[in-house]
Amino acid sequence: MTVLAIVVPCYNEEEVLQETAKRLSDILNKLIIENKISGSSYVLFVNDGSKDRTWNIINELYNSGNVFYGLNLSHNVGHQKALLSGLHFVSDKCDAAISIDADLQDDVKVIEEMTDKFHEGYDIVYGVRKSRDSDSFFKKHTALGFYKLMKTLGVKTIYNHADFRLMSSRSLQALSEYKERNLFLRGIVPLIGYKTTNVYYAREARFAGESKYPFRKMMNFALDGVTSFSIKPLRLILIIGFISMAFCIISFFYIMISYFRGTIIQGWTSIMISLWFLGSLIIISLGIIGEYIGKIYTEVKERPRYNIESVLFRNNKNI
Ligand code: UDP
Ligand code: MG
Q1: Residue 224 maps to a domain
Q2: What is the Å distance from ligand 1's center to 199 Cα?
Q3: What's the pLDDT at 308?
Q4: 172 and 138 fall within a common domain
Q5: Which is nearest to 190 in space by CA: 226, 213, 161?
Q6: Are both 285 and 173 inside the same structural domain?
Q7: 104: in domain
Q8: How many whole angstroms from 196 Cα to the centroid of ligand 1?
Q9: Distance between CA 297 and CA 286 in Å, rounded?
Q10: Among the bound ligands, the one closest to the CA of 101
Q11: In which domain, by residue range, is 249 found?
């Protein structure tokens, strides 16, 4: 039967952890009783270098039974890396893993629906928010603007999906092939492929405590998202270079006409022509270098080039 692992990254979450543990174990017990998951399913708390009592609480939970496990990171590495460490850890110790934040903003009831979808044969099930009513005006609009920007840049992300998702063990193994350091899981997971679907839920306000994503971290995260998935900003330089070269040609005629009309002061013609020409030449050169840097960037990430879904092959040809 399906062993389900629930992975919860925690950073200074002492105020919510007991309640989160209770709600998660309730839902696990319910699914176990309904025979939907195995009795050895569990919750893994990843302590991301918390400075409060988070790790002590995880220890207490671990000693209280055999539902809760803990992974203690040596220092704070941020939500994405903390989550990845947990997913790597469980990838060979479960059939499916669900990642969820510690603050109970995501609806734990949806876990049942996710498990059902997994049994229907889906490898990845995204938790998608129905609305953003629980977010501040600022967070709502910056987030929506960000999704739009990502789409314009050609990055495949799931609209209104945070990191609440179910992944089968084979998709977790595929995920471990992405070795990049600048992590933006929401962009990587859609690259894995396999059969995916969405489940919808209303996102609540934080149960207790405050957001561990201040504005600075949010901006870094957004920048990581763009620069890890798109080399279009580099290509933009080349396009700007060509546009200014076109301007250069147009202004060349204008400058020459002004020259022959004699309506200009001496020296202006040569300065203007060389200014435009050299300017666009420099931008084009930067753009060409950018193109190569973009290629190098994609190469060094060594992302897998394909991912096999299934094979039909009979070994009767003595290969
Ligand atoms: N988190 C983490 N490391 C960090 C920051 C956050 O593990 O450096 C965890 C945090 O404990 C929570 C999840 O990531 O479980 C999401 O953080 P938060 O709820 O503060 O973000 P928000 O919902 O405000 O975007
Ligand atoms: Mg939150």
Answers
A1: no
A2: 21
A3: 86
A4: yes
A5: 161
A6: no
A7: yes
A8: 25
A9: 16
A10: 1
A11: 232-301
67 in any annotated domain: yes
Q: Across all residues in the chain, what is the average pLDDT?
A: 91
The reply to whether 223 falls in a domain is: no
Helices (H) and strands (E) in the chain, counts: 10, 7
Ligand 1: which atom is nearest the Cα of residue 100?
15
Q: Which of 14, 71, 83, 103 has most ligand 1 atoms within 8 Å of CB, for mutation?
A: 103
CA separation for the pair 201, 131 (Å, rounded): 8
Report pLDDT digits (tens) over 44-83: 999 999 999 999 999 999 999 889 999 999 999 999 999 9
**Domain co-membership, 270 together with 242:** yes
pLDDT on residue 92: 94
What is the predicted pLDDT for the residue at 36? Answer: 95
Q: Taking the mean position of all CA atoms in its chain, how far away is CA 303?
A: 15
Candidate of 75, 213, 216, 224 to mutate for ligand 1, largest count of ligand atoms within 8 Å of Cβ: 213
Residue of 84, 101, 215, 218 to test ligand 1 pocket, by largest number of atoms within 8 Å of CB: 101
Residues 189, 211: contact at Cβ < 8 Å?
no
Shortest-distance ligand to the CA of residue 73 = 1
Claim to verify: residue 113 and residue 236 sit in the same structural domain: no
- Total domains in the chain come to 2
